[in-house]
Amino acid sequence: DARIVLLNRELADELGLDADALASDDGAALLAGMSAPEDARPIAQAYAGHQFGGFSPRLGDGRALLLGELIDRRGQRRDLHLKGSGRTPFSRGGDGKAVLGPVLREYLIGEAMHALGVPTTRALAVVTTGERVVRAGGPKPGAILARVASSHLRIGTFEFLSARRDHERVRQLVDYAIRRHDPHLMDAEDPALELLKAVRGRQAKLVAQWMGVGFIHGVMNTDNTTISGETIDYGPCAFMDGFDPETVFSSIDHHGRYAYGNQPSILNWNLARLAEALLPVVKAPDQETAIEIATAEVEAFGAIFLREWEQVMCAKLGLSEVRDGDGRLAGDLLDLMAADTVDFTTTFRALAEALRGGRSALEALFAGSDPIDAWYTRWTARLEASGDEPAARADAMDRVNPVYIPRNHLVEEALDAAEEELDLEPARRIHAVLAEPFTRRSGLDRYAEAAPTDFGPYVTYCGT
């Protein structure tokens, strides 16, 4: 009994699809995996991965299926992928199904990330299946997510072939990934090394953007790290309220491996695994030299990420260019925020308001005024040195610092309504609010407020 309960008409149009046709019974059957276009050859993709540091040589799409590829209106190739559509050869004893709550979470948070300007896979539709799927908390409404990505190539895809010492297919995969994501590198002297550098740059930028909006992925395994630089697999993920770099939301991350503040170092670790997978096809006279070359590129990550992070933080602070000392200025603010667990999102909007003459909202966030006053004096002196008008800087800050993020208590409220009463209206309202995250609108104050004090500790699950 497939029914489309959320349809992303904007994305459908971007893909060159007829949204009204997708909304029909035939469209629901297609997006539920009950039928496929005549020219489609759906497949479950194979990949390996390091999960919490341990290597699994055979993971793959255990509850997902690639329906096929589309060419969108810009001429870009995109994957159409179903998540929760049933068992595959990679299910490892699982049922291959998904339930409505986690599917809705991925829809809402992925679309929020898109509106925030963060590269991400996107949700085309949420389809309910009409069946009850058994999970630890009892039977839940079954659902399927129709997901779109520029590709589903992961670091784990390369690891899958490398672990089998299939060097020729690693080489083929490098060539394919370059044709798909980096065609300007097709004539590179060392394609594997250039692909490593391209992935490093995209992922460094991506994680810096995550940090800039307070996002915690929760499962940064190598099978969840894309070659394209898109965010993928919104399982145990969430946005921080009060700032704490040790924040963890995942129910299975018992030691904080994927905490907010660890995300850059984990990405560096993941890139080292990609480098290892590519070693046999890196052009070098011998393996030792290949290792030295690849190691140098992995070790360059720290400086590359720092530049990306400083650019993100300077934009959040209204600084039009990065100068020496700006990283320390941003870091000192974060230290003050951490000391009082100040709301991450609200702080940066309050800073913009302070530039317009309203200091009270900023000062109300911090337990003591002296430290933030001293920092504020340093910050405004830095702004004055740039020669920009305060009002113009405040407006620029509002264009990159959101008012609305997927507040965890509101997301859970919407998921509970959907799973317990099949009421999708709370989810639709959140989606509408998050579509314009930078514009404050009347009547939406509750969507901008941090969680009430009695909410938490917050834990998220992958839904399998």
Average pLDDT metric: 95
The CA-CA distance between the termini, in Å, is 22 Å
Structural class: alpha+beta
Task: Report the C-alpha radius of gyration, rounded.
Answer: 23 Å
Amount of beta strand: 5-15%
Q: Any idea what the shape is?
A: globular
pLDDT < 50 runs, ≥5 residues: none
Number of strands: 10
Characterize the biggest β-sheet: 6 strands, antiparallel
Q: Kindly state the percentage of residues in helix.
A: 40-55%
> Helix tally?
18
* N-to-C SSE string, H for helix and E for strand: EHHHEEEEEHEEHHHEEHHHHHHHHHHH
Which helices and strands occur, and which strands form pairs?
Elements: E1 3-7, H1 9-14, H2 19-22, H3 25-31, E2 49-51, E3 54-56, E4 64-71, E5 77-83, E6 98-99, H4 100-116, E7 122-135, E8 138-149, H5 155-163, H6 167-181, H7 191-213, E9 215-216, E10 238-239, H8 263-278, H9 287-299, H10 301-316, H11 326-340, H12 344-355, H13 360-365, H14 369-386, H15 390-398, H16 408-421, H17 425-434, H18 445-448
Antiparallel strand pairs: 1-7, 2-3, 4-5, 5-8, 6-8, 7-8, 9-10
Helix pairs in contact: 4-16, 4-17, 5-8, 7-8, 7-9, 7-10, 8-9, 11-14, 12-15, 16-17
Describe the 3D structure.
- Helices cover 46% and strands 12% of the residues.
- It has helices at 9-14, 19-22, 25-31, 100-116, 155-163, 167-181, 191-213, 263-278, 287-299, 301-316, 326-340, 344-355, 360-365, 369-386, 390-398, 408-421, 425-434, 445-448; strands spanning 3-7, 49-51, 54-56, 64-71, 77-83, 98-99, 122-135, 138-149, 215-216, 238-239.
- The chain is globular, with a radius of gyration of 23 Å.
- The relative contact order is 0.11.
- The mean pLDDT is 95.
